[in-house]
Design brief:
With about 300 residues, the protein is α/β, with parallel strands linked by helices. The chain is about 35% helix and about 30% strand. Helix 4 links the parallel strand 5 and strand 6.
């Protein structure tokens, strides 16, 4: 979000005049919800800058994202407390966020294209969140992370050390005050306990051939079958492997002239695009979980 500069009068008095927030909510569809939200914001001197909602007629639910600005003396916790009576009346699941950027931990193995893309967008200011630390089960990308000024933590994983490795990861999540964990081609299956611990705050990326072409050398399998589309899926991590709620998908058309190497290159492009969008939309509070699916306000 663009920074709001205070007026000269406010600068002279040392008081900021405006601050930006985002409200997201989901609830059963009923009359009066939008009016209750807008009245709540108006009564506190806020100005709505962006409003999006989705009325799901099949599930009879409403999903809403409202970006607003106004008095700087408010904090998200105060807004949540004052909004609670409205939320209880409409049985809402809701949250308020300010301009504080999400703190992102990236996990990677030997493929570095997604990590490289995330670093590029972060340094350019277009990622939406702040990369804080890189964690890997290999030393391959230490130089890439440290060249970007990011701490690199090597956590080897074997069948015998998997539990300890996951415990160390959760310690890093606490130590770095991490909001979001991104699996940028991290080639280890997370345990059910870890998936539950990171529910709603861990994003994974994989090629979109699944459930076909499982296992090693998927692009060789794709070449053998003559695929015409290569894609990638970014989704929230759940205990059901590669089946979490989908945030974003990218598809690129190919033809018979693409061998396994060319298909893999196209696939890496698709993975980087889908993952960076998913991370940005999550960090901008544009993704609302809806059972096994998502609502994404782009």
């Amino acid at each position: 979000m663009q920074e709001t500069r205070p007026t000269p009068q406010a600068e002279a008095s040392g008081v900021a005049t405006s601050r930006k927030f985002v409200l997201t909510l989901s609830c059963v569809e009923r009359a009066g919800i939008v009016q209750a939200v807008t009245t709540f914001l108006f009564e506190r001197g806020f100005n709505i800058e962006e409003h999006q909602q989705f009325d799901d007629g099949l599930r009879q639910t409403l999903h809403l994202r409202t970006a607003f600005s106004g008095p700087a003396n408010f904090e998200p916790a105060r807004l949540e407390e004052e909004f609670r009576s409205i939320a209880e009346r409409f049985e809402m699941k809701f949250s308020f966020h300010d301009e504080t950027k999400e703190r992102v931990l990236v996990m990677v193995s030997k493929f570095g294209h997604c990590l490289n893309d995330l670093i590029f967008r972060w340094r350019g200011g277009s990622l939406g969140g702040d990369l804080i630390v890189v964690v890997s089960n290999h030393e391959t990308h230490r130089a890439m992370a440290e060249a970007a000024g990011l701490p690199f933590v090597h956590i080897p994983v074997t069948p015998d050390t998997k539990q300890d490795a996951e415990r160390r990861l959760l310690e890093l999540v606490d130590e770095y005050n991490v909001d979001l964990v991104v699996l940028a081609r991290y080639m280890q299956v997370l345990s059910n306990d870890l998936c539950r611990a990171l529910e709603g705050r861990a994003i994974n990326i994989h090629h979109s051939f699944l459930p076909g072409f499982k296992g090693a050398r998927p692009y060789h399998q794709a070449y053998d079958r003559g695929v015409k589309l290569v894609g990638a899926t970014a989704h929230y991590v759940t205990a059901d492997l590669d089946e979490g709620p989908i945030i974003e998908q990218e598809v690129i058309r190919v033809d018979h002239s693409y061998g396994p190497t060319a298909l893999s290159t196209v696939g890496q492009d698709a993975e980087a695009l889908a993952l960076s969008r998913a991370v940005r939309w999550h960090c901008e509070h544009r993704v609302l979980l809806d059972q096994s699916s998502t609502v994404v306000f782009r």
